[in-house]
Design goal:
Order of helices and strands: EHHEEEHEHEE
Largest sheet: 7 strands, mixed
Number of strands: 7
Number of domains: 1
Helix content: 25-40%
Strand order of the largest sheet: 1-2-3-4-5-7-6
Strand content: 25-35%
Oligomer: single chain
Structural class: alpha+beta
């Protein structure tokens, strides 16, 4: 089955919310947050369509006064995990950041998410700090970055 990577559309909102519900038990993005990211954010909301299913998304945000972009969120649906969608979205996020002349990309990841940490490390991200109780359920976050 082939994967199509593209910018999110307003028509994707129901599927984005379904993915959010499936992938996260706390710190979920709302309908209005997704809408803002599609229509007006200084960033990109990319989706991975696996066959007919919207199977993943990634949000990258840009700052007008900084040259470092932020990977705000990435999610892959349960049935699509292990098929390279996370890698594909991450590569496209990095390409978006390079197009914007960003020199680096930063992110936060839950310390209890070894699969995500491993994905980022395989792609050259390095830990540079942590934030205690960063998430709503008081789980710490690792801070990671990559030079582009």
């Amino acid at each position: 089955m082939s994967t199509l990577f593209r910018l999110a559309l307003l028509e994707d909102l129901p599927e984005l919310l379904r993915l959010e519900e499936q992938c996260f038990s706390t710190d979920r993005l709302s309908r209005s947050s997704f809408r803002w990211m599609i229509e007006g954010a200084n960033g990109r909301l990319l989706v991975a369509q696996y066959g007919e299913e919207l199977a993943g998304y990634a949000v990258v945000l840009f700052h007008r006064s900084r040259s470092v972009a932020r990977l705000y969120s990435i999610a892959i649906g349960e049935r699509a995990r292990g098929k390279g969608l996370g890698r594909g979205l991450l590569e496209r996020v990095e390409a978006c950041a390079r197009e914007r002349k960003c020199t680096g990309l930063r992110l936060e990841v839950r310390v209890d998410n070894p699969a995500a940490i491993a994905l980022y490390e395989r792609h050259g991200y390095r830990k540079f700090g942590s934030i205690p109780a960063f998430y709503q359920d008081n789980i710490d976050a690792l801070r990671m970055n990559k030079s582009l």
